[in-house]
Inverse folding.
């Protein structure tokens, strides 16, 4: 048996997040364009006779926000593999977190995707890709994309993922995690329903973003960025609106709330512009990370 498997999975940003009115099951139909960005969590799995879960976190990550009991999505991923294969799935698992928690960057989903791959390889379960994607969708709407990475169109409740051509543009981002706590995804969706009670059941189409990506045109992409959850997130956290205005006045092509927030991301014209903007925001006392994408989805970095 391999003595250690490390799988790395990236954060996501929604370049387009069209949200329709709620379905009968409470979920919202989405038309979204996901992109992966080079901020990562690693999941390290080693053989053990009993299940254990531990955490290492970057300085800007709120480690207290990550439960280490059975409610962690990594434990749910292990249970899902155990159910599928009808056997125990036991390992010592360490999450090394570089993705801010409850930030709208799908860090938990990245961990779930990485854990599925790491446990599958460590225990030689030989799970098919179809089964991995199906289990991923059951674990959370964002988890299938974390397996894919790149750019992708998401429909259904976000779990139906279709890769989009990468185009040739590298997207340069400044990522600004919130220093005053996360936002709950269900709470932001509920607030969206309150602010837009007559929302069309059909989500806004992603055409403009898809075309800008295909053309590799970063300026057109900046204009096309769209997030229906931005208004409710900014209504709950008005400081996000001020941050977006500051970043846009300081050189960003566009600022955007990431998913359900409260992380704010700024699309920049290139690496120099991104580093300059991060410098301005850091001088203003904020944490600001420079990252680019698209990058690969969950992939083995040690212990193939
Ligand atoms: C908003 C988005 C945008 O990509 O990401 P985040 O900003 O949270 O990272 C996603 O829709 C979050 O996906 P994920 O975090 O996987 O959500 P899930 O675990 O499937 O669902 C959590 C809860 O969010 C709400 N939910 C989620 C997806 C969806 N299409 N409609 C919803 O209403 C429901 O209240 C659900 O109970
Ligand atoms: N491995 C995990 N990493 C982060 N959060 C987790 C994890 N497992 C469960 N959670 C719970 O999921 C919530 C949402 O986390 P996260 O995926 O980081 O945010 P978001 O859905 O905004 O992208 C957290 O507040 C935490 O309670």
């Amino acid at each position: 048996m391999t003595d250690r498997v490390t799988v790395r999975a990236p954060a996501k940003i929604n370049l387009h997040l069209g949200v329709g009115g709620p379905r009968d099951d409470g979920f919202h139909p989405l038309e979204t364009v996901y992109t992966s960005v080079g901020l990562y969590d690693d999941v390290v799995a080693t053989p053990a006779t009993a299940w254990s879960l531990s955490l290492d976190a970057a300085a800007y990550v709120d480690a207290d926000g990550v439960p280490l009991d059975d409610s962690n999505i990594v434990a749910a991923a292990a249970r899902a593999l155990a159910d599928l294969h009808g056997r125990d799935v036991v390992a010592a698992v360490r999450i090394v977190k570089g993705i801010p928690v409850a930030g709208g960057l799908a860090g938990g989903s990245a961990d779930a995707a990485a854990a599925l791959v790491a446990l599958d390889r460590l225990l030689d379960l030989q799970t098919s890709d179809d089964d991995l994607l199906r289990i991923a969708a059951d674990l959370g709407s964002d988890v299938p994309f974390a397996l894919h990475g790149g750019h992708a169109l998401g429909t259904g409740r976000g779990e139906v993922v279709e890769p989009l051509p990468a185009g040739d543009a590298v997207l340069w981002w400044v990522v600004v995690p919130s220093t005053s706590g996360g936002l709950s995804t269900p709470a932001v969706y509920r607030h969206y329903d309150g602010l837009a009670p007559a929302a069309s059941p059909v989500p806004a189409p992603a055409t403009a973003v898809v075309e800008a990506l295909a053309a590799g045109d970063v300026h057109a992409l900046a204009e096309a960025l769209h997030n229906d959850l931005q208004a409710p997130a900014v209504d709950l956290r008005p400081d996000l609106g001020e941050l977006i205005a500051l970043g846009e006045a300081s050189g960003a092509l566009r600022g955007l709330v990431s998913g359900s927030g409260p992380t704010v991301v700024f699309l920049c014209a290139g690496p120099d512009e991104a580093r300059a903007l991060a410098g301005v925001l850091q001088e203003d006392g904020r944490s600001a990370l420079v990252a680019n994408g698209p990058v690969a989805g969950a992939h083995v970095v040690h212990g193939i």
Q: What stands out?
A: The two ends are 11 Å apart (CA to CA).
